[in-house]
Amino acid sequence: MKNVVIIPTYNEKENVGIIIPMIFNLCPGVIVLVVDDNSPDGTGGEVKKLQKNYKNLDLLEREKKDGLAKAYIHAFKEVLKDKEVSTVIMMDADLSHDPKHLNDMIELRKKYDIVVGSRYVEGGRTEGWELYRRVLSRFGNIYAKLITRMPINECTGGFNAINADVLRRISLDEINVAGYAFIMHFKYMLFKSGATFIEIPICFKNRVEGVSKLSNMIIREGILAPWKMIFSKE
């Protein structure tokens, strides 16, 4: 069976040259799919150079910057065409998510449908964030858990290993939120489908290179998303 790591990118040229070798050094058997939204900094070209060294590195090039949600949905649909795929892993390109956790996540995924890399269980933490961002994130996750009743503390984190069969049974086209609220909505759909969850502690590190994509619009999405979810048919 195959394990696929999906990494969405937009202007991540510096980081893909670091994280992709790290992943294959730690997990030589995985497939890595980079989903690039036509990055003007040449991220796609950098991935093509790396493909000469890594046969399990794939690139999905999209025409324009169209958001995290659409990038992931596009990638999920492509990956799930292969019936041999058993685990799909979501991961950021900016080194916020340490590849050292991948083997443990893949192993735990054999017992649980969803393995969540969590800042908010014992041993988990965030490094490099200002106090206001840490407070905002913690409050946002408590708020989301209270409203949605999901059995996890990390509702918004993007480092997740997912049972591909569970992913196949949810309707990706019914996801109606954009940006980083997508991750919360996506987990809620998995929860409502009956998926089992486990959290493992991770250290979430502030991005190494490039510019943070957090904005006021993303914050507003995060506040409104839980209410949209519970009043939707999902």
Key descriptive features of the protein:
two-stranded parallel ribbon, 234 residues, Spore Coat Polysaccharide Biosynthesis Protein SpsA, Chain A, 19% strand, 39% helix, seven-stranded mixed β-sheet, alpha/beta
Task: Tell me what the structure shows.
This protein has one domain (2-230): Spore Coat Polysaccharide Biosynthesis Protein SpsA, Chain A. Helices cover 39% and strands 19% of the residues. The chain has 8 helices and 9 strands. The strands form 2 sheets. It has a 7-stranded mixed β-sheet with strand order 3-2-1-4-7-5-8, sandwiched between helices. It has a two-stranded parallel ribbon with strand order 6-9. Helix 1 packs parallel to helix 2 (43-51) and helix 7 (181-192) runs parallel beside helix 8. The longest helix has 18 residues, at 131-148.
Summary?
With 234 residues, the chain is of the alpha/beta class. Helix content is 39%, strand content 19%.
**DSSP summary: helix tally:** 8
CATH fold group: Spore Coat Polysaccharide Biosynthesis Protein SpsA, Chain A
Order of helices and strands: EHEHEHEHEEHEHHEEH
The coarse silhouette is globular
Residue share in helix:
25-40%
Quaternary structure annotation: single chain
Query: Beta-strand level of the residues, as a percent range?
Result: 15-25%
